[in-house]
Automatic annotation (TrEMBL):
Enzyme class of the recorded protein, top EC level: isomerase
Pfam families, sorted: Rib_5-P_isom_A (PF06026)
Organism encoding this protein: Pseudosulfitobacter pseudonitzschiae
Protein name per UniProt: Ribose-5-phosphate isomerase A
Pathway annotation from the record: Carbohydrate degradation; pentose phosphate pathway; D-ribose 5-phosphate from D-ribulose 5-phosphate (non-oxidative stage): step 1/1
One GO process term, biological-process aspect: D-ribose metabolic process
Length: 262
């Protein structure tokens, strides 16, 4: 990759680069999915190749598994790992309590299973992902293909009765066909605008027949590493609030970014 990096790419990169410092030798690490998580995987790959870091990586999607292997990370399944020291993943939104919306990349099911099976979950995100109240980003809900339209009708009806449905919901598409997750399911995107009680909504959605999982991550994230377009990073911890504000050396990181992206 050459030429000018967009501020958002720089923000994602510095968040990923800082979060890679949390990865220690011997750890079993959950590897997230998405463009920010892809930077993390590349940064960890660099540490494996250049510094001799030895970790086992548990990817949250086939895309991440492929990238992790490409950059030299030893990939194992969650069942082989059983429990993880740390998971680092991106998010579509995070709020002040570090609750999240995830699933923009369609990997929410594996992401939630992996994050929940970890001692610690760290989110990496550009500052644009921070919101006061979750819900502006359409909430992804993974549903089984059988009877998906009936499930959608049930979901919409329930949301209307709870007074949370904004516009409607739509089946996520991949060109002319429904998007299919790694687990062979479909995704409904719910347009809610503002989720008053995310915990309650998550529980209600997961009780519906046909719903496999939803993209609300409640009480799962321990810390967020927030990246800014000018190279600043902020680490916000669930218990202690902001614990670090720093600026990554952009001369160094710019080179690394360019090297990694090539
Ligand atoms: O939940 C996800 C994938 O299912 C991603 O973490 C989320 O969509 C953020 O992606 P990006 O880092 O590309 O903005």
């Amino acid at each position: 990759m050459s030429g000018e990096l967009s501020p958002i790419d720089k923000a994602k990169f510095v968040a990923a680069k800082r979060a890679a410092d949390y990865v220690e030798d011997g750890m079993r690490v959950g590897l997230g999915t998405g463009s920010t998580a892809a930077w993390l995987v590349r940064c960890i790959g660099e540490m494996v190749r250049n510094d001799g870091l030895r970790i086992k990586g548990v990817p949250t999607s086939t895309r991440t598994a492929e990238l992790a292997r490409d950059v030299g990370i030893d990939v194992i399944s969650l069942d082989e790992a059983k429990w993880l020291d740390l998971t680092i993943d991106g998010a579509d939104e995070f709020d002040g309590d570090l609750n999240l919306i995830k699933g923009g990349g369609g990997a929410l099911l594996q992401e939630k299973i992996v994050a929940t099976a970890s001692d610690q979950m760290i989110v990496i995100a550009d500052v644009g992902k921070e919101v006061e109240t979750l819900g502006a980003f359409p909430l992804p809900v993974e549903v089984i293909p059988f009877g998906w339209q009936t499930t959608q009708a049930l979901v919409e009806e329930t949301l209307i009765s709870m007074d949370v449905l904004g516009r409607s919901s739509s089946l996520r598409m991949n060109g002319a066909r429904p998007f299919v997750t790694d687990e062979g399911n479909h995704i409904l995107d719910l347009y809610l605008n503002r989720i008053g009680n995310a915990r309650q909504l998550s529980l209600v959605l997961n009780q519906m027949p046909g719903v496999v999982e939803n993209g609300l991550f409640i009480d799962i994230c321990d810390a967020v590493v927030i990246g800014y377009g000018d190279g600043r990073v902020e680490v916000r911890d669930i218990n202690q609030g902001t614990i670090e504000q720093d600026r990554l050396d952009f001369v160094e990181t710019d080179n690394l970014f360019t090297d990694l992206a090539d």
